[in-house]
Amino acid sequence: MLYNLLALKSEIGFGLNLLRYLTFRTGGAILTALVISFLIGGPLINYLKRKQGKGQPIRKDGPESHLITKVGTPTMGGILILISLIISVLLWADLESGYVWTVMLVTVGFGLVGFIDDYIKIARRSSNGLNGKIKLLIEIVISSLAIGAIIYLTKMPLASSLSIPFFKSVLIDFGWFFVPFAAFVIVGAGNAVNLTDGLDGLAIVPVMIAAACFALIAYVVGNIYFASYLQLNYIAGVGEIAVICGALVGSSIGFLWFNAPPAKVFMGDTGSLALGGALGVISVITKHEIVLMIIGGLFVLETISVIIQVISFKFTGKRMFRMAPLHHHYEKKGWAESTIVIRFWIIAIILALIGLSTLKLR
Prior knowledge:
The protein is mostly helical. The protein is built from 15 helices and 2 strands.
């Protein structure tokens, strides 16, 4: 909004020319989302406590310690993330960018799905929320709409192609198969973050790290000079996504302030689905879907652990892990929650560095 209203008046307003710089607006988005989170976080959490009473329903089959340490903690903290994110993006992003609205469609859409799921859990006082098949169907519809917009906004054949990291200008044109592939990336990312969100601070920091990485990726992909130098596929207008990534970083830091152990609030599906969906659609827009699998490798590991557990139990009657997702396995082994969280953060940082290396190693 500020860019659209004031940037063109830079010749008559001192300092307004700064709004033309993507780096300045990205920094502004980070700070704005952070300040909003700090301002409304406390009152919002108190409101959620009053409305939810006993807080988030705890899984009876989960780690025994959660029945003691997590009881009474409110959920739906993703509302805090979404409010700070949306306001920040509206203030600092170029609202004429179709890519911006596409990312926000998925983020808000997935967030609403998560909100309904959380609401049902609270209303029923059960860890079971929205029907899984209905939930998945809605996510696929939202993703498909976003993919249609991406194909419309991006030049062919790049619009329907998969870029392979570590190789120079290697593109695989999927044609119409790109739609289900991209939907799988977006829906998969949303649910992978959702599975990871099981301990205080566990999911939000890897999300923050991934968002920071994709802020850099969006910036260089959307800059013809940097893209040419790094031998990346240049996509006009994609640099604006860096502002959204900045807002994601700021809102994540703000949420972590309240989600740090012991958590005062959980993000719930409202936050985890929205954040994961945002990362998924950003990776599709920037043509870095495979890089997301590297940078977000922690989310992939958590998801794979669930898949292995289900397949193993179905075919052999035995469980590969003491409990899935993976972080619960280590809880069952006796690891302290803080130890698991910090070590998983370290893994997320290492994977992010490996993912960023793909920008140069070609």
